[in-house]
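anyone seen this seq b4? input:
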Amino acid sequence: MMARPIKNNCDYFPHDAGMRDHKKVKALRSKFGITGYAVWSMLLEYLTGSDGNVFPYTDLEFELMSGDFGVSATEIRSVVDYCIVLELLFSVNGFVKSESLDERLAPVYEKRGKAKELSKKQLRENGKFAINNTDDTVVTVTETPQSKVKEIKGNKSKAKKTIQPLRALSGIFLLEDVQKSWQDWEQYRKEKKQKLTPSTAKKQMDFLGGRAGPEAIAIINQSILNGWTGLFELKQNGKQGTNGKGKAGITAQGTLDRLNSYS
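predicted toks r here
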């Protein structure tokens, strides 16, 4: 199955009703008039929809903007240059960004379960993010005002029954394999008639949180294969541990070997 491409842009950004009255925006309006304000607004829209919320400072990019904005490339460049002087925009390594916009979009990226830093690590080709950058370990969530309303209306009954989303905890829970193992663990506990409570689940997630993904998965499988109802450190290779009742447990190597046989 093909990995899901990382989405490094957004469909929406908050726009303050008084943005035109900000002192820096007033300076922009004073210099370029209504055209300057229009270009500034469109630049924010352009950045929001751009990969990584940046655009390259190149002649080609300004020509593409010109065709999009209906304003000459020369005038757009002048507005961008003045915005950089005012620190409304910033030029970093040949790319233009808005720090204030990044701050406003940060909650969206946090909700998706990935840090904004991921976009900075993506490979670039000819000033653009590489098309084939994919990551099958990231869980993405699209957030728009409409989807937020639907989520609130449609999931009120489910909210009381579910434990806090895994992505709200340690970074290892961003891994789809770890999430799958955790779901297996929840199902296993249900079948054992010992359904996880939110507090127990939180403690066990914290226990797994400081470990690498494969180790966390192996710990979960170790408990399931041994019939345990708790999560414990992996047994050392060559040494059989017990489950607290005098019965031999499966070693760490055996657990990892069993895990690898499923992949």
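The first strand starts at residue 55 and ends at 56. The CA atoms of residues 56 and 126 lie 10 Å apart. kinda curious what u guys think
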